[in-house]
Write a structure and sequence with these properties.
Length: 186
């Protein structure tokens, strides 16, 4: 697994006095960390939390997971709710999968294009397909990262969490502090 190093610029006004950081990861079985045909779950949120705690040693970091197998985020209202609270949103592209029959690839590509091209204040995007590819990955690496052609192994979820954490750390150096629903900077 590629290990990318990122640091938070502690001189950045974004991080000055940042006492706590709360992150909610929500989505489907990939968010839940489904692996081994459901016998094992390893949410990528674990890797995110570890990396953020390393990067922000004086900040209380909480990463909550709401991953439900079969669940799909199909409506941008979900993002609107988060944005209306003053939160920042990091939207991820939908990963490739071994299964390519019918129009599934075209639909995934269309959805990923819509996510990538969405523009709104406090809205951010990560092309996760580029970070955790299926088809572009060498077969030996794919065997280590991908479990069943749709879900990942523990190493795969760590790779996914690492990519997300790297993007979050980059964003923490550049974005406005999130404001909670009570209007207080946290």
């Amino acid at each position: 697994m590629e290990n990318t190093a990122s640091t938070v610029d502690t001189n950045s006004p974004t991080n000055e006095g940042l006492k706590s950081l709360r992150i909610l990861c929500f989505g489907d079985s990939l968010t839940a960390g489904y692996s081994g045909y459901g016998y094992f779950h390893y949410p990528y949120a674990k890797q995110i939390r570890e990396r953020l705690k390393e990067a922000l040693p004086t900040t209380e970091v909480a990463v909550d997971v709401s991953g439900l197998s079969g669940d799909r985020v199909i409506d941008e209202k979900v993002w609107t709710v988060a944005l209306e609270t003053g939160a920042n949103v990091l939207a991820l592209s939908v990963l490739e999968a071994e299964y390519t029959s019918g129009d599934i690839v075209e639909r995934r590509n269309d959805l990923n294009n819509r996510i990538a091209n969405h523009s709104e204040d406090r809205w951010h995007y990560l092309d996760l397909c580029a970070k955790v590819p299926f088809f572009a990955m060498k077969e030996t690496m794919r065997d280590r990262i991908w479990d069943d052609g749709l879900h990942l192994t523990m190493d795969g979820y760590e790779m996914m969490g690492e990519a997300i954490a790297t993007k979050l750390i980059e964003l923490l150096n550049t974005i406005k502090k999130p404001v909670n629903a009570g209007g207080k900077v946290t």
